[in-house]
Amino acid sequence: MFYDHQAIEKKWQKYWEDHQTYKTENDTTKPKFYVLDMFPYPSGAGLHVGHPLGYIASDIYARFKRHQGFNVLHPVGYDSFGLPAEQYAIQTGQHPAITTQENIRRYEEQLRKIGFSFDWNREVRTSDPSYYKWTQWIFIQLFHSWYNKATDKAESIDTLIQYFEQSGTAGLSAVQSDALNFSAEEWKNASELDKQDILLNYRLAYRAETTVNWCPALGTVLANDEVKDGKSERGGFPVFQKKMMQWSMRITAYSERLLQGLDKIDWPQPLKDSQEYWIGKSQGASVKFEVPATVHREEQEAVEVFTTRPDTIFGATFMVLAPENPLVEKITTPSQKTEVDQYIEETSKKTERDRMADVKNVSGAFTGSYATNPFTEKEIPIYISDYVLMGYGTGAVMAVPAHDERDHRFAKKFGLDIVNVIKNDIDIQEASYDSKDSVCVNSEFLNGLDYETAKTKIIDEIENRGIGHGTTNYRQRDAIFSRQRYWGEPVPVYYKDGMPYTLPVAALPLELPEVEKYLPTEDGDPPLGNAKNFAWDENNQKVVSTELIDHISVFPMELSTMPGWAGSSWYFLRYMDPKNDEVFADKNLTDYWGQVDLYIGGSEHATGHLLYSRFWNMFLKDRGYINHDEPFKKLINQGMILGMSAFVFRIDGTNRFVSKNLATEYRTQKIHIDISLLNGASDELDIEKFKNWRPEFNDAEFILEDGKYLTEREVEKMSKSKYNVVNPDDICKEYGADCLRLYEMFLGPLEQSKPWNTQGLSGVYGFLKKFYNLYFDGDTFNVSEEEPTKEELRVLHSLIKKVVSDIENFSFNTSVAQFMIAANEFQKLKTNKRKILEPFAILVSTYAPHIAEELWEKLGYSTSIEFEPFPVFDEKYLEQDAIQYPVSFNGKMRFKLELSADLSTKEIEEIAMKDERTISHLAGNSAKKIIIVPKKIINIVH
């Protein structure tokens, strides 16, 4: 029977849509299972065959759980705010909403073609006001919360105000920007403005001056993961370090909980390691080094450092500050100012990531000032260098060159003292000794003590002298929450007397206003500064014209928008109740659906989306809005499907192209070309297509080999820029969505990267045709009601066992191989029994739903195959009645003997020894030893 994949797939995609097959009901009486893919960003390029890999895997698992009787939530939506649509708007004037809508339409069309079992009714878009209303609401909750270290959770800011009214800051244990000290009386007497300023010191969403990655060309602040090698990931524009007033999220309040929570979730270890490193917990001491007053500076200053090795303080021979440390300006002497300013300017061109990654290069500038080592009482010079970061610790380090490799390189470059304080046998003038496995020397009262003992003793002494204290530090910084761009969620804040106030919840959503242009204003304000209707009327509680701002009742509003990660930090909760207008999600439903049971997506989100989502989830749990600490129970990072790029070789300075195997004879330039310019699936270039590809190649000349131009092929990341993209629409048209789904799983283990090869689809397509025709006799549908044979049941139950194990262990590639083996065996057995082919269809339906639905209907069913119980494995069908024993003599197999599987070892021996072939091989000799492994072998030693 002809397998018409196009007709079958169109038919069942329409059926699923018409019958709302995958619509999920909130049936809390059934066990739930929540399967989710990481939020896709709808780019203009649409999907290539690499994108669906994780979606196919999650879809198989979702279908499997439905067959097992679970109420499965498997939604889809779009992370639809983002820089690409805004850049396109700047270039063309087209509103980002229009671009985004067109991209989403294209994405949805492609996703539906592949047959995913998404509940499209629950679709969310971060750029939809009905969605970002609740993103803004969460921001308001964060603004009106503080972190109580005593209860180890976030609480309403009202409880902090009550505390201040009763006790001031006495005994307060809070996460804060600066340590404040005031009495209850002082709080009560403070002005409204002062009170608001104080509260900003504690709010979980707060505004402060921060060093950011500023990209002038894009007119916005970028997150660290949006910057590569000092340039924006989008567009490759220069990025500079700059101090700006920014909104931040106090994620550092959750650093310890984010670390501890990693033990409770089933995530890949490399991803956990990335978060652990990013959070960067370390224990040590905070110590103050005095900077005496000089003729250029009347006031004495102090440099506070955090060190994990306070036991080496006697070896601190200089200090290094981060170039952006505010103290630098105060302590730099006039003679050093030019050098210091120049160095600060150079450092501003590097991101923190670049500075952390560059461990080999040493640079710096002397401030001209000295600090006093509190234990040696020696004056030690103070430098600035880009290897010290303002965001880690205090933005200053005590440098111990004898026992830190980077400090050692710095000391050698600038000719600074190197003093050994840890016993070792190496020449510390030539290399540092960084080990903790020794004892202190040249350290007065620490001499002879091991690391742990010395560390405890020096911290006690530091505290006794009142110059510091033992402490735990985290590398993680608070997350910047402002972007100076248009296409993002407006921050629901207005400014009165320069102080931020949140809009009332009733005024949400605060919608993006219309603007004439999407660039910053002439005054340097973000694009929202171009809006004519974007001021807050406090009396009438509404947005009004900016011309009405009088700072009495009408106030200016925040002009920055939220970062790209805001909407994706909680979307998994909105899917539980996407149409609710009263709350972001009903508590009963968040209690029912709880954690995402299976989350599939890329590892590149380790320290971005995955960290922020955990933070917001913990915050919402603290405030009583949800009941689970962690958002994602199990996470899998799918690998990448790589493209097979094609290259031509152009002879330098000409428009002549030489075939691959002749290229070594010339000086050439290797150029990417579109893989659509090749002849079929070969490496041969279609010369006419190539000439017409671009005007510059119209008059190209070619040096051929054997009358052909052969391109070079190379496996690379699949990307539009490398011209190696394969469109899934083309594959669905030629081979079908079921074939695409099976082939992507067949390519190899889900977590590994693997190259795409279109030629490989034909084998999978052959299996589908063979599987389809098991149900037909010629062109006639023919399924028998006869009872299956033992062999047919054995093949079926071997398959059930394998498929269940593979799906549960996410080994989807080996299931596809087993489907092929089973189809071949059933074909040999001429299987057409209903009791075999019905469960076979259900098994295949998780991977290839269209063909399975078609066969299910032909089997006489009027409802979808989707909710049929999954076939149950029965061990008895794998038990054999008879065993083919290989009979060996002195280890060499001579013949096979078929015996009942129920025989004892003694019975097997008796039958084997009486067999005529045994008697013949022994030729009158007696057996010295008879080795029998039941159901395996018989070996006779003679």
Helix content: 25-40%
C-alpha termini separation? 59 Å
Count the DSSP helices: 28
Structural class: alpha+beta
Quaternary structure of the protein: single chain
Number of strands: 36
Strand content: 15-25%
- Whole-angstrom Rg: 35 Å
Q: What is the residue-averaged pLDDT? A: 94
Largest sheet: 6 strands, mixed
Report the principal-axis shape.
globular
**Which spans of ≥5 residues are poorly predicted at pLDDT below 50?**
none
Give an overview of the whole structure.
The chain has 942 residues and is an alpha+beta fold. It is built from 28 helices and 36 strands. The strands form eleven sheets. Strands 25, 26, 27, 28, 29 and 30 form a six-stranded mixed β-sheet that branches. Strands 2-1-23-24 form a four-stranded parallel β-sheet, covered by helices on one side. Strands 6-5-9-17 form a four-stranded antiparallel β-sheet. Helix 22 (761-773) crosses helix 24 (812-828) and helix 25 (834-845) runs antiparallel to helix 26. The chain is globular. The two termini are 59 Å apart. The model has no long low-confidence stretch (mean pLDDT 94).
